[in-house]
Write a structure and sequence with these properties.
It is a single-pass membrane protein. It is an enzyme of class 3 (hydrolase). Its EC number is 3.4.16.4. Belongs to the transpeptidase family. MrdA subfamily. The protein has 21 helices and 20 strands. α3 packs antiparallel against α4, α9 (256-266) packs antiparallel against α20 and α13 packs antiparallel against α19 (507-521). 37% of the residues lie in helices and 17% in strands. The strands form 6 sheets. Strands 2, 3, 4, 5, 10 and 17 form a 6-stranded mixed beta sheet that branches. It has a 5-stranded antiparallel beta sheet with strand order 12-11-20-19-18, with helices on both faces. It has a 3-stranded antiparallel beta sheet with strand order 1-8-9.
C-alpha cells in the first residue's frame, strides 16, 4: 500500500512564527519595563540612600582624640604631661581582603625584626573592639631606624602608617606613682562601659590614682574631621573639621619638695607616709615605699618586667597609704580618750592604778602593759604621755564595745574618708553585730579591752590614722582628705560631707592635745628624743602594731623573729600644736618602735614643711602669725 505524502501547511507555520514573535516581543517589552522600573526605583526612589552609600565610600569621618589634661603639683611642677611619640598604626579595612591583615602583621615582624611575642601582642590589639576604619596603634615609640624601615617597605604594608601622637609621660617617675597613678591601654572590659563616641580614637584610659578618679575631666571631648579618600583609602583632602576639646588641667595639693623629703626620711624602708593640712584636708605628701615607674605601663609593660613587680616580696605595686591595713596600736589612744571623756566614763582627773597589767573581774588572764613594772597611779594626761595600756584597758572596759565602736566610726575608723581616692580601703572597726555576722560568735569582754589599745580585729590605713589625728587637731571639724587642689581653676566639691564631731565639753580637745604634747615634750614622754631642738610644739602619739601574736606571759624578742614578722612602727602627730598646719602619719613596716623609728621620720617631714632653708621657722608659721590667724 503506497505511503501517504504530508503536505506542508504554510499558513499554520506562519501563524506559529507570528505567535512566537509576539510572545518574544511581549517578553522583551516586559523585561525592558522591569529594567526601567528597577532603574527608576534605584535612581529616583532610592536616590538618597544610594547617594549616601556612594558618599560614604568616598567620605569618611575620622575621630580626633582630645589632648589629655595636664597634672601639676601645688607649685606648678608638671607631674603628668603629654609627650610626642611616633606609633605604628594599622587600619584593618585598608589592609586588603579579609584575613589579609594577619599577613601584613607577619611582614611587620619581618621588617622590624621583632619576636613572636610581639606578633601575638599585635594580633591581640587588632582584635580588640573598635569602630570601622579606625586606625589601631600596634607599636609605640618607634625609633628613627624603625621609621625608615617602614618607609622603605611601605608598598608591602597596605593599611599601615606611622602616626605622630601624644603619649602620657610622668617626668617625676616613681615619686607620684601611688597618688597620680598612670594610664594604660583600654581593655575589653573597659571598652564595654565607655562612651563609644567620646572615646573614638582614644586608646588609653586612667587605670589608678588621680588619672582614674578624674578620668572624665582629664579626657576631654572628641573631635571629628570628614575626609575624602580614594579607592585605596588614602586621604585626598579634608572636607570638614570639628576641633576636640582638651581635657581639664588639674593642680594637686601635693608638694614635690615635701614628697622628696618624706621619701628621704623613710630611708628606703618599707612603709607609708601621708601629710595633711588639717584646715583644708589637702594632702601635702603621700608616700608608699617601695614604688615603681608608672611610665612602664603607659604603652604596655613587658611580661617579664610586670612579673618582677607583681611577684616582688616588697610589693612595690601595693599602695600602703590607701590599701595597707594595719592595727593602729597606741596611735588610736587619743581618739579613745576623747570618746571616754565625752561619754562621761572618765574625767581628766580620773586615775587608775597600774601594776603592769590589767585583769577583768573574775578572770585570771592578765592583759599586760608595755611597761611590765607598771606606772603606778595614772591619770589621762600621764596615760597618753606614757602610752599606758592599763589605763586604756580600763577605759575601754567601762565604755563597752557599742559606745567604743560608735565613737571610732565618727573618727573615720572603718569607713572611707578620702574625697578623691577610689582605691581607698574602708578598713575595719569591729562591733558586736559585725562579729555575729562574720564569725557567728558572741562578743567577749577581753576583745573590747584590746581594742582600747588599737589591737585585735581593728584594721586601719595610714590615711585613716592621719584623718583621725586631723580631727583632734581641728577640734572635730571634718575636712575630707583630697589630692586635687583645683580642677581647671575650681576647687573640688565635697558632695557628701561628713558630720563634724561635737563634744559636750569643747575643752576635752585641749586636754587630749596636751597629753599628746607631753609625748613629745614631757620629761617622761615616749617620743621626747624626736622633739629635741624643735622650734615648734608637736602633739604626737606613737604606736606599735603586732604582726604575730605573743603568748601569754612571754616577752617580745626580736632575735627570735624573722625580720618581716617583727612589729610595725607607727606615729601620728600635728604641729604647731596650738595652731596646726600639718598632720603627719607614718607607718614603717617591721620597724618595731613607733617612738624610736617612726617619730624621727615625722619630725623630718614636719621640719621640711615648717622650716626654711636656714632651719628657721617660716614666717607664716611664727607664733604671732598663727595666733593672729586663729583669733576669732
Amino acid at each position: 500500500m503506497p505511503q501517504q505524502i504530508r503536505l506542508k501547511d504554510h499558513e499554520k507555520d506562519a501563524r506559529l512564527v507570528r505567535n512566537r514573535v509576539v510572545v518574544g516581543a511581549v517578553a522583551v517589552v516586559l523585561l525592558v519595563c522591569v529594567l526601567i522600573a528597577r532603574l527608576y526605583y534605584l535612581q529616583v526612589i532610592q536616590y538618597d540612600y544610594h547617594s549616601t552609600l556612594s558618599e560614604n565610600n568616598r567620605v569618611h569621618v575620622q575621630p580626633i582624640p582630645p589632648t589629655r589634661g595636664l597634672i601639676f603639683d601645688r607649685n606648678g611642677v608638671v607631674v603628668a604631661d603629654n609627650r610626642p611619640s611616633f606609633s605604628l598604626v594599622m587600619t584593618r579595612e585598608r589592609a586588603g581582603n579579609p584575613g589579609k591583615w594577619q599577613d601584613v602583621l607577619d611582614v611587620i615582624v619581618e621588617v622590624l625584626e621583632l619576636t613572636p611575642d610581639d606578633r601575638a601582642l599585635f594580633e591581640k590589639r587588632m582584635k580588640q573592639g573598635r569602630r570601622p576604619f579606625e586606625p589601631v596603634p600596634i607599636l609605640f615609640e618607634l625609633n628613627e631606624q624603625q621609621i625608615a624601615r617602614i618607609a622603605v617597605n611601605q608598598f608591602r604594608l597596605p593599611g599601615v602608617e606611622v602616626a605622630a601622637q601624644l603619649v602620657r609621660h610622668y617626668p617625676q617617675g616613681a615619686h607620684f606613682a601611688h597618688s597620680v597613678g598612670y594610664v594604660g591601654r583600654i581593655n575589653e572590659k573597659e571598652l564595654k562601659t565607655l562612651d563609644p563616641v567620646n572615646y573614638s580614637g582614644t586608646h588609653h584610659i586612667g587605670k589608678t590614682g588621680i588619672e582614674r578618679f578624674y578620668e572624665d575631666e582629664l579626657h576631654g571631648q572628641v573631635g571629628y574631621e570628614e575626609v575624602e579618600t580614594n579607592a585605596r583609602g588614602r586621604v585626598l583632602r579634608v572636607l570638614k573639621r570639628t576641633d576636640p576639646k582638651p581635657g581639664k588641667d588639674i593642680v594637686l595639693s601635693l608638694d614635690i619638695k615635701l614628697q622628696e623629703a618624706a621619701e628621704q626620711a623613710l630611708g628606703g624602708r618599707r612603709g607609708a607616709i601621708v601629710a595633711l593640712d588639717p584646715r583644708t584636708g589637702e594632702v601635702l605628701a603621700m608616700v608608699s615605699q617601695p614604688s615603681f615607674d608608672p611610665n612602664l605601663f603607659v604603652t604596655g609593660i613587658g611580661f617579664k618586667a610586670y612579673a618582677e613587680l607583681r611577684d616582688s616580696i616588697d610589693r612595690p605595686l601595693f599602695n600602703r597609704v590607701l590599701r595597707g591595713l594595719y592595727p593602729p596600736g597606741s596611735t588610736i589612744k587619743p581618739a579613745v580618750a576623747i570618746a571616754g571623756l565625752d561619754s562621761g566614763v572618765v574625767t581628766a582627773g580620773s586615775r587608775v592604778f597600774d601594776p603592769g597589767y590589767y585583769q577583768l573581774p573574775n578572770y585570771d588572764h592578765k592583759y599586760r602593759n608595755w611597761n611590765r613594772t607598771g606606772d603606778g597611779w595614772v591619770d589621762l594626761d600621764v596615760a597618753i604621755m606614757r602610752s599606758n595600756d592599763t589605763y586604756f584597758y580600763d577605759l575601754a572596759h567601762k565604755m563597752g564595745i557599742d559606745r567604743l565602736s560608735s565613737y571610732m566610726n565618727k573618727f573615720g575608723i572603718g569607713q572611707k574618708v578620702a574625697l578623691d581616692m577610689f582605691e581607698e580601703s574602708p578598713g575595719l572597726m569591729p562591733s558586736r553585730e559585725w562579729k555575729r555576722a562574720t564569725r557567728r560568735q558572741a562578743w567577749f569582754p577581753g576583745e573590747t579591752l584590746i581594742l582600747g589599745i588599737g589591737q585585735g580585729y581593728m584594721q586601719t590605713t595610714p590615711l585613716q590614722l592621719a584623718q583621725a589625728t586631723a580631727l583632734i587637731a581641728n577640734k572635730g571639724v571634718w575636712n575630707r582628705p583630697h589630692l586635687a587642689k583645683t580642677i581647671e581653676g575650681q576647687p573640688p566639691v565635697d558632695e557628701n560631707p561628713m558630720e563634724n564631731i561635737v563634744l559636750r565639753d569643747k575643752s576635752d580637745w585641749a586636754r587630749v592635745t596636751h597629753g599628746m604634747e607631753q609625748v613629745m615634750h614631757g620629761a617622761r614622754g615616749t617620743a621626747r628624743k624626736a622633739a629635741i631642738g624643735s622650734q615648734y610644739r608637736i602633739a604626737g602619739k606613737s604606736g606599735t602594731a603586732q604582726v604575730v601574736a605573743i603568748k601569754q606571759g612571754e616577752k617580745y624578742d626580736r632575735n627570735k623573729l624573722q625580720e618581716r614578722h617583727r612589729d610595725h612602727a607607727l606615729f601620728v602627730a600635728f604641729a604647731p600644736a596650738d595652731a596646726p598646719r600639718i598632720v603627719v602619719s607614718v607607718m614603717v613596716e617591721n620597724g618595731e618602735s613607733g617612738s624610736g623609728v617612726a617619730a624621727p621620720v615625722v619630725r623630718q617631714v614636719m621640719d621640711a614643711w615648717l622650716l626654711d632653708e636656714n632651719g628657721r621657722l617660716k614666717p607664716e608659721f611664727a607664733p604671732a602669725t598663727v595666733a593672729q590667724e586663729s583669733a576669732p
